[in-house]
Amino acid sequence: MTSPELDRRPIRILIVDDDPMATAGITALLNTAEDLLIVGSRSDGSHVVEAVRQLAPDVVLCDVRMPVMDGVSVVRALRAHAATPAVLMMTAFDEDGRVLDAVAAGAAGFLLKDEDPYRIVNAVRHVAAGDSEFSPRAARQLTQWVQDSRTADARRDAMEKLAQLTAREHEFALALVTGASDAELAAQFFVAETTVKSALAGIKTKWGIRNRTQLAVVVARSGLA
Predict the structure, then answer these.
(1) What is the pLDDT of residues 63-98, one digit of tens each?
(2) Are 159 and 129 contained in the same domain?
(3) Which of these, 50, 75, 182, 185, has the minimum number of CB atoms within 10 Å of its CB?
(4) Is there a single domain that holds both residue 177 and residue 78?
(5) What is the pLDDT of residue 192?
(6) Does 48 fall in a domain?
C-alpha cells in the first residue's frame, strides 16, 4: 500500500524553453498549484537528458523549437532511457506541424502556449498520472496540421486502422479528435467513464500506439473527423 506521504508527493516538473519570458510565465503559473513543484529549467534541449538524470522530474514541459536540439529530438532522446518522464509539448498557435513528429516519437500530448491557465495546470496532472492531453484548441490545430501534411498512403493506412474497430470504438475515436476528455465523451454518449477508458485502451492496443494524441492523429489522417 502506498504511504500517505508518497500520496502527497508533489509532481516534479522540468521546464525546457529557450524563451526566458515563457519560462518565467509557466513557472509563475505552476507555482500557484500546491501539488506541482518546478525542479528546474533548461533553455536548450541538449541539456535535458542530463537534467532528467539529476532532477528526476515526473513531467517535462518542452517547447517545440529550440536552438541546438529541438523538442522532437528531446522526446526521442528521452525515449532511449528507461526511467522516462512524461513529455508535454508546448507550442505557439502559429507553430507548424513539427509537433506531429514529437507525438509520433512518444510525447504525451501538447498544448498551445496561450491556453487557459487552468487547463495547463490540469494537463500536467493528467500526463503525470499516465494519461495524454491535448485541448480542444490544440485539437483543431492538430487536425489542421495533419490535413495539410496528409498523403494518400497515410489516409489509406488510417482508414484500414479504423476498419479494425467495433462500432462503439469507431464512435469514440472520431469524437476524440475534438479534444474531449474521457468524462466529456462519457456524457456525450451516455455511458460510464470506465466504458470510454476501456474502449480507448482497446483501440490503442489494436493500433499499437501509446496515447490518445497519437490516436487523434490517425483519425485526423482518415479525413473522417
Answers:
(1) 988 888 888 889 888 887 766 899 999 887 666 677
(2) no
(3) 50
(4) no
(5) 94
(6) yes
pLDDT beneath 70, residues of the chain: 1-7, 82-83, 93-96, 225
**Nearest-angstrom CA–CA distance, 184 and 164:** 24
Q: Could you tell me if residue 206 is inside a domain?
A: yes
Indicate the length of the chain as a whole number.
225
CATH of the domain at 90: 3.40.50.2300
Evaluate if pTM is beyond 0.85.
no
Distance CA 223, CA 157 (A): 12
Range of the domain at 54: 4-133
Q: What pLDDT does 83 receive?
A: 67
Cell numbers given for 71: 523538442
* Number of neighbours of residue 188 by Cβ within 10 angstroms: 14
Q: What pLDDT was estimated at residue 150? A: 73
Q: Decide if 141 is inside a domain.
A: no
pLDDT, residue 93, reads 65
- Concatenated DSSP letters of the chain: ---HHHHTPPEEEEEE-S-HHHHHHHHHHHTTSTTEEEEEEESSGGGHHHHHHHH--SEEEEES--SSS-HHHHHHHHHTSSS--EEEEEE-TT--THHHHHHHHT--EEEETTS-HHHHHHHHHHHHTT--EE-HHHHHHHHHHHHHH--HHHHHHHHHHHTTS-HHHHHHHHHHTTT--HHHHHHHHTS-HHHHHHHHHHHHHHHT-SSHHHHHHHHHHHT--
- Kind of pairing, strands 36-42 and 59-63? unpaired
